[in-house]
Amino acid sequence: MIDEQFHSPVRFSIMASLVGLDRAEFAFVRDAIGASDSTLSKQAAALEASGYLKITKGHVGKRPRTWYSLTDQGRTAFRGHLDSLRSLAEAAAEYTGQGSG
Amino acid sequence: MEPTNYQLALSQADELALRGHRSARWLARYYLIFGVASLLIAPAFGVLHGLAWTIVLTGLWGALILGISLYAAKQRTMVRGGARIHGWVMAVWTLVWVVTVVLGSSYDLAWPWWLAGGIAMLATCFLGARAVLRRTRHQS
Q1: How many domains does chain A divide into?
Q2: Size of interface A-B (CB pairs under 8 A)
Q3: What ipTM does this complex have?
Q4: CATH number assigned to the domain comprising residue A83
């Protein structure tokens, strides 16, 4: 099912970068999606508020670290969203004649 | 949204998932290093006797554990199910290590016993690495 939460390209990218992982560090997600620190923080907070993302703060040695992980609800919603996009892409391709060869 | 936009979004998701999978393969490398080191150190403990060798081997093992622990602490991702895989690998490895050392020392067993123990530890780590690589194999 298409989820409006993922209409934002940044939120979509955050979810895509985490879907195959247990967790990823803030810097990894930021570098992967090419967002600024503040944009990532803001969009991650929005996903957390929706119950799709868990944010864990801790330390490695003396350095503070922030970890992101998808909740079961978020993983299910994002996979459903991707399935819907695939269906729409196929349907649209057929409609425009691109899928008929 | 145009068909090309759907495809673009799916391609982007695929690309980001691939990046995550590649990054998470560090755990397989960790197991390979740990397994090969186990294969070397277990027979060494069985063959090289005396206080001096015990100190040297324990020091080498400690340095290895410190090194791979620092390597693990620097990583930025964890494969899906990584905690469970790690728990199993470490539990089985510890069991094999204890059985190898306790029986090998108690009955003063010769080097083939210790080598077999080392191979069992390496096999355990290989299984862990295989599990990580299976979970990070990318499917579009």
Answers
A1: 1
A2: 80
A3: 0.87
A4: 1.10.10.10
